[in-house]
Amino acid sequence: MTVTINELINHTYIDKELSAALDSTEAFEGPEKLLEIWFFPSSNGIPQSKGRRLTLRDIQLEQWVEILKLVKCEVLSIKSTSQMNAFLLSESSLFVYDHKLTLKTCGTTTTLLCLQRLFDIVEKQLGWDLRDGSKYHPFKVFYSRRCFMFPMKQRSIHKSWSSEVEYLNQFFCDGRSYLVGRNDQSNHWNLYVTETSKAEEYSSQEEDETLEVLMTGLDPNYSKQFVTNREINEHEDQGHLLGYNITKSTKLDCLYDNKTNANFTHDAFAFTPCGYSTNMVIDDQYYYTIHVTPEKGWSYASFESNVPVSKISLKQQDNGQVLNNVLGVFQPAEFCLTFFAKDGSSLNKLANVTKSIEHYSKRDKIIYDLDDYQLLYMRFERI
Ligand SMILES: C[S@@+](CC[C@H](N)C(=O)[O-])C[C@H]1O[C@@H](n2cnc3c(N)ncnc32)[C@H](O)[C@@H]1O
């Protein structure tokens, strides 16, 4: 599976002015805030309203721009497939399906401050009744993040986990908050998750697994691949061209063995003076997304994927091999991984495979049973 030059010209949307002018030279908070909202268990579960069935993908671009303004980030470009819209943002990514969305943003973005506007739009425009008294009850909500490197630089409620949880609890019923890993400044990960709406739980046929790998202390010989130092030129969109070149040279488009020849859609951007983001969509419905902050001192890269590796590779590959491919590109000094799965066997398999990651030693391993999901958290350090 490799990307082709066609990927540079078939965007659904592209902000050429923004793409040409983005620049950031200050210390950057790579670790992202990750919000995933399942409004319904599947697209089949979306109700009709006034004789029409509207979905998240009926929300217009101008409204996403307005929602993202509250988050303090902008849309660089969009790739659409038959089942989802993949937004590449000035600070990471947004994936919109008919019934669910994933918003991943880094830096000093204010992810949760878009919740009220998002639910207003969903309620008034799509006609979805998600009210539970003064709160909302979507099918499921996940909000997570690794501990920040520069917590005091964060804005508003994002300065502390407890104020983020307090804010989430104003919107949702039955939310639970976890501190996963060591209770020190730099080695933990936080999760907020709402209880699955029981009435709909068993109508969900959707298989779902998500692997995240959060890497720090990137090897400078490898992270320099993400430094381009391009000249800012208002008239040329070099960011997407250089992003494409980096994808090819690092082979980040070859992490999965696409044995089914499923459609592959790709969008990447190289920031200036450095930094890289990419969204890859496989089979029109699964994504993996990679974001890189290569600066020495606060280097960071994240990989997140909901690609069902065994289906896409016809059982030729597993998540352990994908993990090794990812580590090979960044060679981090440390990383933690989180893996959510409904099926305990893929989780156990990954937990066992990772016993033998070359050059790394396991420091923490934690498994949670979260009603319909199991969660594996592991942290490793280079030996
Ligand atoms: C590519 S973004 C991805 C963030 C992602 N969460 C991560 O760090 O892995 C961050 C990188 O791009 C660089 N960058 C340059 N201009 C930027 C901008 N306007 N907004 C965000 N990042 C920018 C940052 O300095 C950093 O190296």
From TrEMBL:
Stored InterPro entries: AdoMetDC-like (IPR048283), S-AdoMet_decarboxylase_euk (IPR001985), S-AdoMet_deCO2ase_core (IPR016067), S-AdoMet_deCO2ase_CS (IPR018166)
EC number: 4.1.1.50
UniProt-annotated site: Cleavage (non-hydrolytic), residues: E91, S92
Catalytic activity: S-adenosyl-L-methionine + H(+) = S-adenosyl 3-(methylsulfanyl)propylamine + CO2
Lineage: superkingdom: Eukaryota
Pathway, per record: Amine and polyamine biosynthesis; S-adenosylmethioninamine biosynthesis; S-adenosylmethioninamine from S-adenosyl-L-methionine: step 1/1
Gene Ontology MF annotations: adenosylmethionine decarboxylase activity
Enzyme class of the recorded protein, top EC level: lyase
Keywords annotated in UniProt: Autocatalytic cleavage, Decarboxylase, Lyase, Polyamine biosynthesis, Pyruvate, S-adenosyl-L-methionine, Schiff base, Spermidine biosynthesis, Zymogen
PROSITE patterns membership: ADOMETDC (PS01336)
Residue numbers bearing the Pyruvic acid (Ser) modification: S92
GO terms (BP aspect): spermidine biosynthetic process; spermine biosynthetic process
Residues reported to bind substrate: F28, E91, F271, E295
Cellular component per GO, a single term: cytosol
Cofactor dependence: pyruvate
NCBIfam families cross-referenced by the UniProt entry: SAM_DCase (TIGR00535)
Family membership noted in the UniProt record: Belongs to the eukaryotic AdoMetDC family.
Protein name: S-adenosylmethionine decarboxylase proenzyme
Organism field: Zygosaccharomyces bailii (strain CLIB 213 / ATCC 58445 / CBS 680 / BCRC 21525 / NBRC 1098 / NCYC 1416 / NRRL Y-2227)
